[in-house]
Amino acid sequence: MSLSVTMSGMKVAQKDLDVIGNNIANAGTDGFKRSVTSFADVFPNDPSASPKTAVGQGAVVSLISRDTSQGSMSSTGKVTDMAISGSGYFTLSAGGNQVYTRAGSFSVDKNGFLSDSSGNLVQMAGTGTASGEREGITFNATDGTWKAVPPAPVATGLTDIKFPVFMRPVIDNTGAKPVADYTQEPTAVFQGDAPPANPSDAAFDGLLQSVSIDSNGLISASYSGFQVPYPIGYLAIANFPNPAALQPIGNTDFAASGDSGNVSLSAGGTPGTGTVMSGALESSNVDITNELVKMLKAQQLYNGNARALQTQVEVASRVTDKL
């Protein structure tokens, strides 16, 4: 038995311990997906070698795969905390780059954008905030309501989710009195826009009151003086042919890779896409008991190879002494 064979056994055991240790370290990380180490044996590439006397040359790590199974759900009561029950990933913009995550701990920042703790902006279906550009959402000029249909797939691109701080009612031609003109859509006023006239006047109701998110990922906001909530847009939920091959980039975020396949985007609850749960977070799918059992096996593998290495060194030393 050569020293290199035994050393390869120690190396794969150490790699397995590294993977298990990382799993255990992230057992409390929301949205984390555990990794699994796979091994392969090594034999000399010699066509003339007899299979009756072939001796292996050790072991190698053949694959470190990701277990994408669902983690348990924990209720938080915070509306902008979200989890996906089923397949799919939240889509974020990180400095202009598209990244994906299962960790849905989001909040509204000082500029009105829905973002994660790193400032990455959550994406919705559509290319803007006007009713005609928010995909799946149209304004009904007959009764002054909005119609929302979950898009599958997303066809018109993505944009950052931003909450209007005020809804300006349709006003008369003097610019002073709200009128029930259902043919015109009320104007959404965002952070940084010109403030509405007389925002404190009861005649100009429109202050943000509450936010809701349904199972399709439709984010709606209710405003004082408005009977119907304003639909901000549908969350863009990403799916991949091989999600286990997504590239981890830290902060529980992933990037697409050549092996993950091309991204497809849709609203939640559409065919092949999980539903969105507001007020909840997905826990890590790490089972501590299972990881500890795997750790004991990896330790035994390492200790066994270490003992074999010690024996080889002792035998080599005795042979050398006799020469």
Beta strand count: 24
Beta-strand content: 25-35%
Tertiary shape: elongated
What is the chain-wise order of helices and strands?
HEEEEEEEEEEEEEEEEEEEEEEEEH
- Low-confidence region ranges: none
Structural class of the helices, strands and pairings? alpha+beta
| Helix share, percent | 10-25%
Number of helices: 2
What is the terminal separation in angstroms?
20 Å
What is the averaged pLDDT score? Answer: 88
Furnish the topology, listing elements before pairings:
Layout: H1 3-25, E1 35-41, E2 59-66, E3 73-75, E4 81-85, E5 89-94, E6 97-101, E7 104-105, E8 107-108, E9 114-115, E10 121-125, E11 137-140, E12 145-148, E13 158-160, E14 166-168, E15 187-189, E16 208-213, E17 218-223, E18 230-234, E19 237-239, E20 247-250, E21 253-255, E22 264-266, E23 275-278, E24 280-282, H2 288-322
Antiparallel strand pairs: 1-2, 3-24, 4-7, 4-23, 5-6, 5-10, 5-19, 6-21, 8-9, 10-13, 11-12, 14-15, 16-17, 17-18, 19-22, 20-21
